[in-house]
Design goal:
homodimer, alpha+beta, 677 residues, TIM Barrel, Immunoglobulin-like, 3 domains, 13 helices
Chain lengths: 677, 677
Amino acid sequence: MTRHPAASHGAAVLAHEPDGFSLLVAGKRVLRHAADAPCLFVGRGEERMEMYRGNFDIEDYVVERVALRHASMTGETVELAAGPGEAPRLRLRLEGGALRFEALDPCVNRLWLRVPAEPDEHVWGGGEQMSYLDLRGRRFPLWTSEPGVGRDKTSEITFRADVAGRAGGDYYHTNYPQPTFLSSRRYALHVETDAYSVFDFRHPDFHEIEVWAVPERIELFEAADFLGLVETLSARFGRQPPLPDWVMGGAIVGLKDGARSFERLGAIREAGAKVSGLWCEDWVGLRHTSFGARLFWDWRADETRYPGLRQRIAELSEEGTRFLGYVNPYLCVDGSLYPEAEAAGYLARDGRGATALVDFGEFDCGVVDFTNPAAADWFAEAVIGRNMLDYGLSGWMADFGEYLPIDVHLASGVDAKLMHNPWPVLWAEVNARAVRSRGRTGDALFFMRAGFTGVQAHCPLLWGGDQSVDFSRHDGLVTAICGALSSGLLGNAYHHSDIGGYTSLFGNVRTPELLMRWAEMAAFTPVMRTHEGNRPAENLQIDGDPEVLAHFARMTRIYAHLAPYLRTLRDEAAARGLPVQRALFLHFPDDARTFAIQDSYLFGPDLLVAPVWQAGESVRRAYLPQGVDWVHVWTGRLHPGGAEACVEAPFGRPAVFFRADTAQRELFEGLPGAGGV
Amino acid sequence: MTRHPAASHGAAVLAHEPDGFSLLVAGKRVLRHAADAPCLFVGRGEERMEMYRGNFDIEDYVVERVALRHASMTGETVELAAGPGEAPRLRLRLEGGALRFEALDPCVNRLWLRVPAEPDEHVWGGGEQMSYLDLRGRRFPLWTSEPGVGRDKTSEITFRADVAGRAGGDYYHTNYPQPTFLSSRRYALHVETDAYSVFDFRHPDFHEIEVWAVPERIELFEAADFLGLVETLSARFGRQPPLPDWVMGGAIVGLKDGARSFERLGAIREAGAKVSGLWCEDWVGLRHTSFGARLFWDWRADETRYPGLRQRIAELSEEGTRFLGYVNPYLCVDGSLYPEAEAAGYLARDGRGATALVDFGEFDCGVVDFTNPAAADWFAEAVIGRNMLDYGLSGWMADFGEYLPIDVHLASGVDAKLMHNPWPVLWAEVNARAVRSRGRTGDALFFMRAGFTGVQAHCPLLWGGDQSVDFSRHDGLVTAICGALSSGLLGNAYHHSDIGGYTSLFGNVRTPELLMRWAEMAAFTPVMRTHEGNRPAENLQIDGDPEVLAHFARMTRIYAHLAPYLRTLRDEAAARGLPVQRALFLHFPDDARTFAIQDSYLFGPDLLVAPVWQAGESVRRAYLPQGVDWVHVWTGRLHPGGAEACVEAPFGRPAVFFRADTAQRELFEGLPGAGGV
């Protein structure tokens, strides 16, 4: 078969074939079309989408799905029709390394693209995936939503959450989906679309991309190795602001105990913990519902709950400790900001033109309409700027983003179904703009769980969402690793999680073991932060048990000890977009045994971290990549690469190894507790 | 718009329309095709089907689904293509009142047909449906399988059964599906196909029929009223053999207690119960597994468990009581029949040509290949004929039928996926042939849970499968009513269920209330039969409590008292194919309030039965159809039709009414316990 290169943009070449065409990226065939094996299908679907507090029930009725068998090529443009002599329904144009799509049939609202697959190929990405790093063999709908409780239809917790509120979720549910994947064939593919999409990696011979629209573009990226691919993707989606230096001084301690939070912080410090920040999400005050205490969603300090807060923040700052708060894109109807926003027309509307109200469980909220530039400006300036940054906050959880109801009417006129996925990016942008307006980019730190294509440019730190307070496979500690690694591949350098998890339901509560194991892992992530969880009184807190507190304090010292190393990783992130937590294969692209590992990771290039993520374990087995030797941090014992190591991992000694050839040996050998056998 | 009648067969007329065609049945439009609203789609799917002990996990990947917009009509033939000038892919021909289909494109393996729907239309049928009588608003895959345990994804039992063995099921799972529906527009539609199919009644404007093949025919039936439709369908699918007279003498008592069964029967009789038969499924002996005692699947009497059984059967017969047993289409490898069948080549084979073995939990079985005429003959003659009928049995549970593994190789060469649905019919035919060979049609009574199109002609009695031993909405007592009514509409005149239900799992056990309420209902069905259930020792039996036994005995007398009436219903079934248990609308076609009622039924034309089907209820509300008055059997009080009646329904007095204008008044007024206020 002969190929005639027709057009080349960057690395991409559209090649005529006798029976169709191919798209080659650096010689790799990423599309192959022939009349008897078409790579494109278009059609029409009628979706049913129902939302229950951020959980979606989505189903598609595909009315038509037509193979576009007939391709006619002119230069770098391809027109596709169902058959010869039929009206073309789709036009593709290779432009700047991307395939631009144009619908020629206005009835088309579904597109399916098949990408050739190899039998032993691995694929990664899809945003922040919590269950599977290697996506091969499964189907991943990409739609920002609540991730679910338990996320495993065979678990009792998921069953109960499903029955109680359709909230159980499944393996693919995530706050941060992104239609981008990397292949072990060393290319990456991104679908530029705001629509609902699905990556289906179940087929042996092809990957199928489904988009509930004709996408704007399919972008292709190629590099000699995976690090190069990540750099390229980071450049494409936007470089994150640098991690603030102050964060590296110790843990951010999350307490929501009103004024008592300050006292408890003192005691935690006295126990020897290094603390960089105090995070009080209840800085806005509480609302009491039958579900228990909830935050009061009106974004300004509640000086009843925190008397003299402004002054206390200033005092804390003098001690070198920052204060962080909480915000989300909703305004409760009984707050002070709601009437202001409503009067100005800043809130999304319902089908009758009235302010759309969202029920959050015994209280209703308006949705700030970020497609209205004036509303976004107001939220950035008046709410985050004035009420938060000017008040003294150095950071906050920028919660939600994945809940945009699909039936609201927005100022931009764009269908809310098409704004749902990019909404987290608008939300990140509002936060980033506020930070920038005060000149505090790289200093003020907000963290988000929701995301979509482009969130990288705005959000300085992801957090892994609301894990259950357990060791479960699909919603426990180990999922925070998967979230860090998958999102890291798409240019999200910084990730962290709630130490001890968040969601405590149906009698599931934190054990001391869980809290300690999670703190151990967090010491080897960019940010170490605690959270009291959704039911603080029923769950163990880091200051609730002397042994747990002592362990936590020690892990904060380990975290702080690594600051010089973390600074090099921050610089690497700024320069190249590489994540702090890295899938093993990023540095060992030729070691296929690393391709599906998702329960251990590289912390920068030199440390390999294998957290204990199952209950009752005190010995950890972990594969060490080939080509270098690895030194077990706590014993100094050398382990060869290319084999599994098996080490004792009692509390306080998570399985951590450094490369024998590291330039940071002195730092690592100086870790508290490290040393000879 | 003008219509030009082009062809008419019976009631069906194919009419040219300026932009397509219509199919009219007695003036009712049942198909409407236009280029911009096509009624036919064809395409290609790749199914994934996995079986776990009769439970299926089925998913379809639809590669193509193409609207056939262009129709060209010649006389009574229509050829359909995707567009003008394109090759036709499907040919339809109106012939004998049916649309015959012919695929012109060999790649097509999926077909979707849209039938116009009206907003307030109701639809019924789909085989023996256990959850919903009115199918409107839901989607019904039609594939014979285990019905599931709990059959409700929000129930704890279904969750546990799913986790334990993917056995929880859902609302549409049934042992007996059939691609036939009746519409309140007073027509019926049948799809003649053996393939997997789906009836989708969720759309407001059309019903969609999906077939995983090009079906042979779509058959249409029309009548002035619903009784006429049922008569027509019964004529089409085959008239059932009549219900034996001996059955009407009392209950068939199911005991599986070895020789002790006879003693227990004596005690049950002494308590005043009318008994027509003793059913011992353990007549073949037991196998002890870690799950408990199972039957020994080698179809001949086990005279160790039942010493002198042949003689005891004869003695029983002299007392006027029949003996019934059990059989299914499998042979256990350690039995006497397996080597005989294997040597003769009567067993289905696997992909390597060896005998296919099916694991039933600690024992393996061969599958008798009924597509091999010699195997079917052998099973009918040597197994059922000689070992069962000649031995003295007057009936049996002909269990299973819905389990044909989809990967076995059959003598006929037909794909097991296409034999899976009709397998129950082959199984019924083998049983019916054996009965006929001994001249005992209408006397020997076998009962089946599995079915498919055509089972009506062979199987004299359906049983509603393995309900859970509870009052649950989707797997309890009430589902036996739905099963009777839905299957009855398709010409299955006789239906019954296990008194007290069968499946006791996860600590769910029979209560006295359940057993009594079920016996009450069973007295007003064609056959009253008990079952000890899957865990006899852990569950209450009819002879396990004096109050329960006295109640049961009384209900058997009520059943036996109704024999003269039941005989008229048997005659009606033989003459017209009408079911004994009837949906209310069959006799009240103009009373739309009856269209969705599935928790009460007509027992013949004159009795309305509203069983208590929820725990803790002693008052029953029931809608009484319009146009006649109704007499409450126990009090003699008159209730007007067209309104709800509310009556006391203590144990022993289920809510039963007779038509005030009945010719059977004397019989009904003579029911034990009936009388004035």
